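Hi V.,

You were right to ask for the full record rather than a summary. Here it is.
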Amino acid sequence: MKPMPQKRTLVLVSFLGLFLELTLIRWFPAHIFSIAFFSNAVLIASFLGLGLGFLLSHYKRDFFIFFPCILTASVCLVLCSENIQVALPVNAQAWIWSYYQGNRLQHISFLKLSITQLIGLIFALTVIIFIPIGQKIGKSMQGFDPLVGYTMNILGSLLGVAGFGAISFFCTPAYTWFIAAGIIVAAVNYKKPGFIIGAMAMAAIVFIVGVSEKDILWSPYYAIELRRSEEGAVAVYVNKLFHQKAVNFAQEPHTYEKYMLAYKWFNPKRVLIIGSGTGNDVWIARRAGVRDIDAVEIDPLILKLGQREHPQRPYDSDDVSVFVDDARSFMHRSAKKYDMIVYGTLDSHATLSVTSSIRLDNYVYTHEALGEARRLLTPKGVVVLLFSVPTDWLAARLLETARSVFGADETRYIIMDQYLFNLMIVAGPGIKEALLANPDLSGVLSGLPARLNTDVPTDNWPYLYLTRRGIPMLYLTTLLFLICCSALAVFILSPLKPGRINPLFFLLGCGFLLLETKSVTTFSLLFGSTWIVNAVVFLAILAIALLANWLAKAKQLKEPLWFFGGLIISLLFIYFFPIANLLRLGFFIKILSAGILLALPILFTSLIFAILIKDTKDTGIALGSNLLGAVIGGFFEYTSMLWGLNALYLVALGFYIIAAFYLMRNRSLAVGAK
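Predicted structure:
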């Protein structure tokens, strides 16, 4: 029986690992906004750092005493890097919102980084930050029964996710996140050499972050800054990028006319506004005489800012019903019919989740999503889609997506000036009657051109911002660079010659990361791309792992090959199962059905892992190899840009089949049996 301090240390450091991972995934993009489009690079780097730390757990020197100083130096470097110009390639093959207009550090104006170099820098920093944490977890697990130690590791990780979920719920500022991390570090390092220096370093982080972010508000999705103009308008910046503007329409008559354009031809009684934000579209609907307005906004803080800061106070009316929800999730559940559905410039500057390269708005602009919008229209209803289109190919993709749902006869569009939005697509059964009633309308709204050569986004391939199917050159170059860096780090810090990488646990890690990614994206499709859904999925996955550990110990499970069979069958079943059919079910039946479908492969792979780790000779090497495998799985996640998200099940299946064959041929070698 291990003493309580060692158990406490293991749980606390495991908590810190997951908590800090989620913290950095949110905090880095707030200061270096290009990272938002590669958010899982931070996730992959954290796995690499933790894995290397596990493999170094037998080193006598405890690297964790250096952790506070490493984190402090990294925070300072990130805050300095936010002012350095980043060059975006013209042939990126993906649209990345960017307003870099030159170097903001006047004294080092010669310094310029490519986006690949910048991501490489953040990747390296993240790896270095997590190596001491991984080593500390590995050291703390030494002497424990492997399954018991692994269970406490999962428990600490689960508490870390729950802790960060609480922080997201209360929209606390970032310095409080580092206070929480500092308390954990202090509890682990108390009475150890360097404690005072470490405490001072963590206090310095809290002070530096608090001062540098004094004007930043944190929502569950973004770091938000406000800029007020003399005419009373309020511009909203998220992660350093212009996001939207609460327009003072009394001072901007041209903007008023632009927003009001659709209401000149249609007289809706019931309007749904998707992405209502600070309230521009809500106020315009009120001015047009609409008396039944449903406003849906995913970000609770942006909604509050609109209620408080918008000059016209659009939400202060009994005619407006507000819903804090994901747009797609709201449309799933709604049975109400609308005369007009307004898509209020939902172009996003953030990603859907920590495991995916999908952006927050991707599931809103798919063929299936517009099909749901059509279902909610009255016989004379229309969808009005507003978008700030930066390139011709993105405009073509949106037009083709509308054509795929409404047809050419029911789809019209207009290109406008660049201010706030420049594309308006009007589509729906109400178009024909409007054209008959307003003959001059055909001269304002253009009919669709001949079919355009572009891929229509679907729920399986929701990549609105890619020029075509495939991994863009920018992503491919960056991934190859990060893979080389990862391989070099493994070779230097964990020599391959002594065989310190366990192939079986490595393969299990590859497959598990892909299952985790697909679970998050599927639940986001079914229940919304909100932070709550993501947190619940992560908690559920960790809870399943705990259940698997308990079953393996309580039932004395010994043969993992049976569970490999169940895993392979469940993956094949879920690959061919039409998940979209669940969208038509009631909420509770849908969550039960989806939960069972997605939990089965997670349960089988967790049981396999629990059985194998019981017999492992070296827990540190096993878990380190597993995390390094997750790094490779993270890189393979980008193949969904080519084959679609559902293909991730087949990629994971390939890894698990190889693992099963390896286990059959090398059972004792595979686990390093005692």
